[in-house]
TrEMBL record:
Name of this chain's protein: CDGSH iron-sulfur domain-containing protein
Location of the Iron-binding zinc finger CDGSH type domain: 25-69
Gene3D superfamilies: CDGSH iron-sulfur domain, mitoNEET-type
Record's keyword annotation contains Iron: yes
UniProt keywords, alphabetically: 2Fe-2S, Iron, Iron-sulfur, Metal-binding
SMART domains: ZnF_CDGSH
Cellular compartments per GO CC: cytoplasm
UniProt-recorded Gene Ontology molecular function terms: 2 iron, 2 sulfur cluster binding; metal ion binding
Top-level taxonomic group: Bacteria
Length: 69
């Protein structure tokens, strides 16, 4: 059985998505441009890269293209 690194030894993983949020393993603390910080305790956090989120810096799926049915 291969050894797996403990959580403390393992680097934080960030996944980049084309036209989507950055997926970051949580918990995270994000420092905003104004110097304030926001915190999420979730195990995976989606950080908005499109700036359209009403919950910025968290992704609220506003990056998705709207299509009429
Ligand atoms: S990346 Fe999802 S709302 Fe901006």
């Amino acid at each position: 059985m291969p050894n797996s690194p403990s959580d403390a030894d393992r680097p934080c993983r960030v996944r980049i998505q084309h036209r989507g949020p950055l997926l970051v393993e949580g918990p995270v603390e994000v420092e905003l441009e104004d110097g304030s910080t926001v915190v999420s305790d979730r195990f995976r956090v989606a950080l908005c890269t499109c700036r359209r989120s009403r919950r910025y810096p968290w992704c609220d799926t506003s990056h998705r293209e709207r299509t009429r049915p």
